[in-house]
Specification:
The protein has 10 helices and no strands. The protein is mainly alpha-helical. 67% of the residues lie in helices and 0% in strands. The protein starts with a helix and ends in an 8-residue tail after the last helix.
């Protein structure tokens, strides 16, 4: 749910709570009651769809990452043995296919990694007897093949969850539009209480104010008080002969020198 939708939902819930608390004011107006019930139902639909959206991928990403890490680790072991066997037998195609590094595997997208792993799986089947001499038992190779299947299954589950989340987002957008239309009708009916029930009307308007939950107001810093500059009189040095202070020249004493005509 994006920030704007969170703000809208906050307003919806404030209006709903106010109407529920003051339902006695309009419970004798059939259409008002019906529209209020429709509004309540729409808010519940929004909450349910948001819960579905939030939980669509929960746990799926973790499973995929754990499986990817473990299957990548053992893939390097098997690829290393295949590479060495290819070098020993001068099997250039096998050497090229098995020339895999950790950086290369980490740089692959999930779907690309699945293809690479399936390719290694095929090489295992073709060279299973030779790999035993490189410390890879049939049990270990079978474990690797099983991890490939787990990874591919987790990847498909994640892709399915992503599609479910995208669909939930689209439905949420429509639900908010429908709830806004209903709220507009409630606004019009509330106008009927502008004169007849001023207290209810003002309370409704207060609940109806759009709430921006994304704004954080910072406190205004106090102005810095500047200390006024204090001007000091320049020091008068004493005359070396008389010991009396020398008079300062006009430009330093602040006096205006006389103008010579």
């Amino acid at each position: 749910m994006i920030q704007y939708q969170k703000n809208k939902l906050s307003t919806f819930e404030a209006v709903h709570a106010y109407l529920e608390k003051n339902s006695s004011v309009f419970n004798n107006i059939e259409e008002f009651v019906n529209i209020q019930n429709a509004f309540t139902s729409k808010i519940q639909d929004i909450a349910a769809k948001e819960d579905e959206r939030m939980n669509a991928t929960k746990g799926k990403t973790l499973d995929k990452n754990v499986t990817r890490k473990s299957v990548t680790s053992i893939a390097l072991v098997v690829a290393g043995a295949l590479y060495a066997f290819g070098k020993k037998t001068n099997n250039v195609p096998l050497t090229e296919k098995a020339n895999i590094t950790i950086s290369k595997l980490d740089g692959l997208r999930n779907a690309e990694l699945a293809i690479t792993l399936n390719s290694i799986k095929g090489l295992i089947v073709d060279n299973v007897q030779a790999l035993i001499g490189y410390g890879l038992s049939q049990e270990r190779l079978a474990s690797f093949e099983s991890k490939i299947d787990i990874y591919v299954a987790a990847l498909k589950s994640k892709q399915s969850s992503d599609a479910q989340k995208t669909g939930a987002n689209k439905i949420l957008t429509n639900l908010f539009k429908e709830a806004s239309v209903i709220l507009d009708s409630i606004d019009k009916l509330a106008e009927g209480f502008r004169e007849d029930n001023v207290q209810f009307y003002k309370g409704y308007k207060a609940a109806r104010v759009f709430k921006n939950l994304g704004i954080r107001h910072r406190p205004t810093p106090e102005p810095v008080q500047q200390t006024p500059e204090v001007k000091t009189e320049p020091e008068k040095l004493p005359d070396a002969t008389t010991g009396k202070p020398n008079p300062l020249p006009p430009e330093r004493s602040g006096e205006v020198p006389p103008v010579k005509l």
